[in-house]
Amino acid sequence: MSGFPSFDYRNGRLYGESVQLDRIAREFGTPCYVYSRAALVAAYREFDAAFGGRDHLVCYAVKANSNLAILNLLARLGSGFDIVSGGELQRVLKAGGDPQKVVFSGVGKQPDEMRAALAAGIFCFNVESEAELAVLDRVAGELNKIAPVSLRVNPDVDAKTHPYISTGLKENKFGVPFEEAEKLYASAREFANLRISGLDCHIGSQLTKLGPFVEACGKILGLLIRLETLGFTIDHLDLGGGLGIRYLGENPPAAKDYVTALCAAIGPRNQRILIEPGRALVGNAGVLLTRVEYLKHTPHRDFAIVDAAMNDLMRPALYDAYHEILPVIANGGDEKIYQIVGPVCETGDFLGHDRKLALSQGDLLAIMSAGAYGMSMSSNYNTRPRAAEVMVDGDHVHLIRQRESLEQLLAGEKMLP
Ligand SMILES: Cc1ncc(COP(=O)(O)O)c(C=O)c1O
Ligand SMILES: N[C@@H](CCCC[NH3+])C(=O)O
Predict the structure, then answer these.
(1) Fewest beta carbons within 10 Å, which of 103, 120, 142, 416?
(2) Is the CB of 154 within 6 Å of ligand 2?
(3) What's the whole-number mean pLDDT along residues 214-229?
(4) Is the minimum distance from the CB of 291 to ligand 2 under 6 angstroms?
(5) How high is the pLDDT of residue 166?
(6) C-alpha 339 to ligand 1 mean position (Å)
(7) Where in the chain is the domain with CATH 2.40.37.10?
(8) Ligand 1: distance of its center to the CA of 207 in Å?
(9) Given 32, 59, 201, 345, which residue is catalytic?
(10) pLDDT reported for residue 171
(11) In this predicted structure, what is the pLDDT of residue 329?
(12) Which atom of ligand 2 is nearest to the CA of 373?
């Protein structure tokens, strides 16, 4: 298991921080995302240090949590960034990220997004199809630039994760087919405005075993050797992200063991190694605070209706994902098996099923391991304003995103004249 626990259950505080979550809920209201600076820094350092003297770049996968304060914190630690849109590029630049440490992934990059990335001077485009090579070449030519490219190959490795977040199987939309990689590198070489720079793969998310990573690295290494034999110069290997965290009973490898295993599988090569962790950097650095609005007892079930919902944290509804739910302030209700549900009008709007808790109205709960793919996947469904986000830093609590107002939410919509 990773060396950075998410939460000190006994004291109602976040990892390494001294501010009570109860105080945060009173000051900023609920629902509210709370992150720990200490946990974020510890997680980044664990990945970074694990490389020892080996040339490497940790490119945080922005999609996991794109709050500017988090990006800025990571940029200050020296992190690079894995982006998947022009919007994420803007965020990284605004947060002070170094464009020379940015890789751009994604199957559907648009010409405008390519232009912005070329203008910023990013490190590499992780190209995912032959058609994308042609568009990138054209856009780069128009700007009189040479685009650095890696091909993201799909190694057809079973990541043994939820099917919605497996990306390295041949039936997935991601990457170019492994057996076509050499042919596509040869096509890439023919484009005047592209420069082959690296080789990339990413097999999926929330992987809790090393086996699939090592298998993918073996395939990538074999391909690298064949490409070098064919005369291609590959400066870096991007091995993607995907290291899982503990939500329930999982026992994922520590960042250090994961990095050590990747490096061992690649062996002593000259290429710089890139990784793109998202969840493992921020997942256990954040919780979602929510208050019990109502308890509702029916002959069949006991419901705790809380003020957070699937629009705030959609992982349970989307993947049937488990997040631990712990009382922060409990006022001593009877213990029951509760369905923890939100106010949204969907039966799928649940945050946890069958949780044994002693609850009463007004209790404060923390939904654990919510730092990754929580706020970044939130929506305004049911016209619910997005939650606030705060970062705890020792004795201080910084509001890093205000709770959205209804005015902000409705701005931009227009009625017909
Ligand atoms: C290309 C790419 N890189 C990195 C990541 C980050 O994954 P994770 O948050 O599982 O580390 C993802 C998401 O799966 C991704 O699609
Ligand atoms: N959104 C997913 C992870 C997707 C990874 C992105 N490729 C989750 O919450 O688990």
Answers:
(1) 416
(2) no
(3) 96
(4) no
(5) 73
(6) 31
(7) 284-410
(8) 11
(9) 345
(10) 78
(11) 82
(12) 9
| Residue pLDDT, tens place only, 338-393 | 999 999 999 999 999 999 999 999 999 999 999 999 999 999 999 999 999 999 99
Return the exposure string of 342-352: e unless at least 16 CB atoms fall within 10 Å of the residue's CB, then b. bbbeeeebbbb
Residue 314: pLDDT band (50, 70, 90) is: very high
User: 5 pLDDT exceeds 50?
Assistant: no
Q: Is 345 a catalytic residue?
A: yes
Ligand lying nearest the CA atom of residue 175: 1
Q: Hey, what CATH class is 284-410 in?
A: mainly beta
pTM of the predicted protein model: 0.96
As a whole number of angstroms, the distance between CA 24 and CA 29 comes to 8
Ligand 1 binding pocket mutation candidate from 276, 281, 284, 318 (most atoms within 8 A of CB): 276
Q: Is 378 in the pocket of ligand 2 (CB under 6 A)?
A: no
Residue 162 scores a pLDDT above 90 = no
ipTM over 0.90? The verdict is: yes
Residues comprising the binding site for substrate? 279, 315, 319, 346, 373
Closest-CA residue, ligand 1 atom 5, reads 241
Q: Where in the chain is the domain with CATH 3.20.20.10?
A: 105-277
The CATH architecture assigned to 105-277 reads: Alpha-Beta Barrel (3.20)
Range in 239-248, 328-337, 345-354 with the lowest mean pLDDT: 328-337
Ligand 1 geometric centre to CA of 278 (Å): 6
Is the CB–ligand 2 distance for residue 373 below 6 Å? yes
